[in-house]
Amino acid sequence: MLSIALLLCLSVIFPSKAQHTEKFFLSGTDNENTETWEFFCSSGRKSGFWSTIEVPSHWEQQGFGTYDYGRDYVTYGRSHEFADEVGFYKRTFKLPSDYKGKSLELVFEGSMTDTEVKINGKSIGPIHQGSFYRFSYDITDFVNIGNENLIEVKVSKMSANNSVNRAERFADYWIFGGIFRPVYITAKPNQHISHHAIVAEANGNLEVHLEMQNVTASNKITASLSDFDGKTIKEWTTAANDEGNLILKNKIENVKTWNAEFPNLYQLKISLKDNKNKTLHEVEERIGFRTIEIKEGDGIYVNGVKVKMKGVNRHAFWPETGRSLNPSLDLMDVMLMKEMNMNSVRTAHYPPDKSFLHICDSLGLYVMDELAGWQNAYDTESGRVLVKELVRRDVNHPSIIFWSNGNEGGTNKALDGDFDLYDPSKRPVIHAHHRPGNEFNGIDTDHYENYASLQRKFADSTLIYMPTEFLHAQDDGGGAAGLHDFWELMWASKMSGGGYLWVFSDEGLVRTDIGNKIDVNRVNAPDGLLGPHRQKEGSFYAIREIFSPVKIFIEKLPEDFNGEIEVENRYHFTNLSEVNFEVEWVKFRKPGDPISGHEVIQKSSLESPKIAPGEKGKIKITDLTLLDEAEGLYLKAIDPHGEEVYKWSWKINPLQAIFDAITNSPQEKAKSELTLSDSLTVISAGGFTLTFDNSNGTLSRIQKPSGMDLSFGNGPIFTYGEQEVSNVEILEEGETKTLVFEYEGHLNQTKWTIHPSGWVELNYTYTLPEGGYAYPGISFDYPESNVISAKWLGKGPYRIWKNRNQGTIDVHQNLYNNTHAGSTPWDYPEFKGYFGDISWMEINTAQGKFYVVSEKEGLNVRLFDFYGMAGPISHPELPKGDISFFDGIPSLGSKLALGITSNAAVYGPQGEKNAMNGSYSRTLYFYFDIIKDPTLSHDKTNRFPNED
């Protein structure tokens, strides 16, 4: 079922016939609704003979030609030569008889790259050069109304213009061929409005710049403005002239302005009438009243309010169909950006589908609309044509607040002034760059600064700094890793305009030449916060918290919690009184419970505080009667449009029932047995027998009550230095014996006790000299091949890094997978990695389940071998063992942190290693079999192990 938002967009994308501009589609309307044309490919696959092809599409995705990843000269063995096949299209068509006498125009929304068109054997105009732009031809005199017509299109994948190739095709993205956006014929009356450009300012000033054909002074123009409920706000009439150009002006009182938080839209209808008031032609446009201003040395202002861009770069891309998309895909992408609490998008590195912009208008995203040019610019002659096509197509979208003149050196500065020729609202033009000297219009957009250089820019520069690319998200690096430090600095700095993360999704292409496998061109294209099919990676949810316009500071509830929670309003236009807040008191599922998640024991709404944008205040939870009973607290913010902003979570006292069970002994005391020899020590109780190697103090064998061994062992191994046992000691307390190992080195002591309940207690102490450590703690071995799943109470469900440690506190469960971010099978969340704030974890294996519980907060668990980023070596380096328990974990850098390393420290304080100095201790409790305690499990028919 189509969503309301999509239906709203479709109503504008496909206007009704009553508007008097009719469309006759020669192609389909999008990648899911195509038309079949005859097709001939000059070289590569399925070449040299006439066949058929679906339009719109890329011919590579239809099985023709050769694949080409722009700048990758080596993989495809062409040594600086690119796939250069030519496609020949043709089909017949018959226009309706009522098109006779009308003005007819043939429109291509996008064709890659040089496009030559004939109708009925005659060339209809010059070859169009440039892939991503709408272009058109007047074909009134070329078609036969009522008879069949033949259209022939020749599309050359490589352009005859070298600057077009350098700007578009020698680029860091997949290169395609073909007619990839719709082709249609428009029919307008002989007297008609040919173009309109609208200026709608926040103060209500309205200008409509009209271009008309065959109009005289006897004609009239009527303008009607309605709100989105259809109520007419204002209507007025102006006399036309003989010149064909006219500017309508008016002032609208009490307008509701457009911004990303409240995207208020109006409907403007312009009617061309004759001297008898008969309507000859009408055009309609959705408009938003808003004003964009760059105040040099200060900031970026929307409607007089200083704003900062929480943005992302977005390729128009889908794995099966490349850059041929549809409104549903465009809507999905905008909804995902809004879910991440973003307010802006850069259309890297070319203008997007028209439907994407309509949706940004409707749902509220600030758009940077970009002229193509990846490190190389169009020449001036061809660039001027393409700037005109870009701006005239997109000029009326309120969501567009910047024009971008190329990417990373792909800027022809001679074109800067051309944008204003076609945009009467004079939107700012910027240069998206990574080279000094390209600052423009008071904005520095330099790419991939580190934290120290970011600080220097904000401290010393008179330019607004708004990176159009930062924190490159190849594999699992960058993205949200480092974003907390960056964003806090950006938010606090006067000279920050925000920025745009690289990039929205992995550009993984379904290769029709290799069995429809997805190819990301190794390390060139797996740069997304989402997978190719928009699978949510770990950065997705972390960004949602970091970019939340409702900023909650409290990380854990204080012991004297009185219900007050400090909050900052980081909206630009929304008072927190317009945001709804809900609180949930919960109890978490327990170890041994067959299901995950939590139970809500009470849910209620809170009074929304009146806190203006940029101000701080407090949210007050007045009813604290469940504070002693509940195990967790959730706080949810819901924006004025009914969408969840974020849900914060805190533990209260989730382990009490578990520790009651651990220390609960049978009525008849079970005596610990301990045998000590020269090389081995064996301790048993509660039905379990544990064997230790006396030479290094490691657990070497676990025998369960069933008699089956569990292959968990060869630990604890401390993650730094060597460990050598200096003394073995046995302590007795009543019927319970404790095995104590003392060591030389950083690991000082381990104590092992088996409680009569069967729970095994491990207490360990270690000492570290002052310094930075990636993963201080202990490790054990366990065969990865035996593992089925993991369940835990802690942050999740995604793995974390030290500088990307966001997550929801709950009981999460992940099935085993071997996913590496940015590569097949994109099965998220990743099973392997670092998981944080663990209270307990259950590992389900082919040998049964086993459990670990942490008495102390702040436990991080590492699961098996994995990496964050690919490169000459995989980063970051992993500790010893398979399953680890740490008091700190590593941070993750990015592809561009000091070249191709993953040095996270350059991205801010959270990227530093864990500062350690002195003695540390932690107690872990293990249970090496299935828990059947009725106090923990919903299985009330079973009793606790060994309990009579």
TrEMBL record:
Residues 195-290 form the Glycoside hydrolase family 2 immunoglobulin-like beta-sandwich domain. Residues 51-189 form the Glycosyl hydrolases family 2 sugar binding domain. It catalyses: Hydrolysis of terminal non-reducing beta-D-galactose residues in beta-D-galactosides. Residues 565-623 form the Beta-galactosidase domain. Its EC number is 3.2.1.23. Residues 1-18 form the signal peptide. Residues 293-512 form the Glycoside hydrolase family 2 catalytic domain. This is Beta-galactosidase.
